[in-house]
Amino acid sequence: MVLPRQAFDAPNLSVRLGRIMKLRIDYVADIGNGWCMLGLHALRAALVQLPELETELEIRPFEQYPELPPGGTPLKELFARVFGADMALANATREAMREWATELGVEYRPDLRTRAYNSFDAHRLLRWALTQPGEQVQLRLALSLFDLTFKEGGNASDHAALLQRVEALGLDVASAREALASGAFGDELRFIDAEFREHAADMLPAVFFDGRLVSQGSQSPQTFTTLLRVAGGLA
Question: Distance (Å, rounded) from C-alpha 73 to C-alpha 83?
Answer without folding.
Answer: 15
